[in-house]
Amino acid sequence: MNNSHFFVTGDPMILGADISIIVASLGILFVLTYFKLWGWLWREWLTTVDHKKIGIMYVIAALLMLFRGGVDAILMRIQLAYPNMHFLEAEHYNEIFTTHGTIMILFMAMPLIFAMMNIAIPLQIGARDVAYPFLNAISFWLFFMGAMLLNLSFVIGGSPNAGWVGYPPLSELALNPGPGENFYILSIQISGIGSLATGINFLITILKMRAPGMKLMDMPLFTWSILATSIIIIAAFPVLTIVMALLFLDRFGGGHFFTMTGGGDPMMYVNLFWIWGHPEVYIVVLPAFGIFSEVVSVFSKKRTFGYTSMVVSLMLIAFYSYFTWVHHFFTMGAGADVNTFFAVSTMLIAIPTGVKIFNWLLTMYKGRVKMTEPMLWTLGFIPCFLVGGATGVMLAVAPADYQYHNNYFLIAHFHQVLIGGTVFGMFAGLTYWWPKMFGFKLNLTLGKWAFWCWNIGWYVCFMPQYALGFMGMTRRIYTYGWDRGWAPYNLVSTIGAFIMAIGFLFQVWQIVYSIKYGERDTTGDPWDAHTLEWSIPSPAPYYNFARVPDVTGVGKDAWWEAKKENEKDAYRELVKEEPLEPIHYPKNSGIPFFMGVFFFIAGFGFTFHWIWMGVIGLAGVGLCLITRSFQYDTDYYIPVEEIRATEARLGREL
Ligand SMILES: [Cu+2]
Fold first, then answer.
1. Residue ranges for the chain with pLDDT beneath 50
2. What protein residues have CB closer than 5 angstroms to ion ligand 1?
3. What is the pTM of this model?
4. Distance, CA 452 to ligand 1 centroid (Å)?
């Protein structure tokens, strides 16, 4: 490979991106140096093992990736707005739809989910951290470096272009000799290890670290949704790892797992990919369901209607998610009986989902509904998700799917469930837990503008795409002629995408504005909420709970019950009047960061077949593991005086 291929050049848009990346990086370096922030950045953030800070880093990374994936989307919508456009060439269009999908699912939706888990779960169950804080930091840095590796492909080597699913034969060496697909495989592998570790970490945290007295059936519904999600992650991600490893062997080792000519079978890839891929949909949507359950009950001033049926339907959805994967390729020709099985199993998922929707509506019924921003996202979600869900049942009708397969009907469907479900859900969660993270509320007026832009833009963008699907417009085409009659629908759809982009800009404005002017939360409980995370001051102190709450005999919604019991001093209801004790706490560590860097080096080396560099990277990873194994000084005790002083600073006498 020579230099002219190494650096992606030739396209003014890429040149512009190169220049803006360099300018932005220099700007950040300047600010960090000028304000002498390097030490702070290293001590407080890059080496942290605190779940709350890791959660905040996930939020920042996810919003950056939402921007990147959003720019991809806007570029595609501009290209498709009119027939015969020459805004993007075919090859460039292929790269952009590939990175859009890969980034939005793996590097935007996933970290947003991990952000919410990190921010809320330990606080919600009355724990001082996750079960394995060090592993948690490793998870974050593997995700982050994986995301950076994929993004690097934009300026170095060239982006992947075989779709976010990377189906062979298109992703095989013979048809795709450049480094793009290598970036794809290796970035997914690196971040995938982190995702699997997160699943294990949170499953153990929820099972083993709940406050004394909190039974499984007392857990908040968000915690239940993360329990279900963690189980799906643990069962699904290894399949993705394996299918990527096999593709890697095909490309690097001359394997023939998926090459027809060598006796392999490309459909095996498709099956394995979706055995991960369909559960993945529930990995990103069940946490949103959990957030909606919290938000609806808090802002209706009621208990969640049908708690037990909520838990059962969560677990049923998680279970069913393993038996539906063939609905992504009914047209494979597996036969009527196989297709029937998967059609019926897919439609079955509508039942527990419907149960949840009715429960949310019944929770609001006769409640005192308060229109806060989290509630707006939740109310926007319900009709959006109904449209997306109903078209999902239409897609599940196997014979009819021969008509919709791979056309814009499908595109509209999955964008509607993923935006209406996951994205709206994470925005609800972000605005709900924001005061607990930062100690102030986000501005509601700007939030309303953001919400209405997203909500209206969503319908304007995707409803016309259903029609386009019926009119025969297939996905991944980069242009079309006037004779098709698709032009007006495409133009409207593009306008909708821009409306959503304006919504995103409002959110950026909202965050910047609220940092300065947002209403400060001095109570720790700005929403008059129900669960334990609101019993401590805002922002949550680094050790979370000065005294671990004891909820024996209280049942669900322990904080709400405590407030009913003793309105003036609810905190006393939750904790026993024991003397404060020193808190056992993990020390920060730079090893997770360096492990991420070494994985990045290894991934970059293998992408370009520079074996020496790959080996150096992997050796570095090994060195990190060995170093950690011989570290004995990994934790300490926070003295009582420091706990008392921290609480006093946050306005709480102990
Ligand atoms: Cu599916």
1. 1-3
2. 278
3. 0.95
4. 29
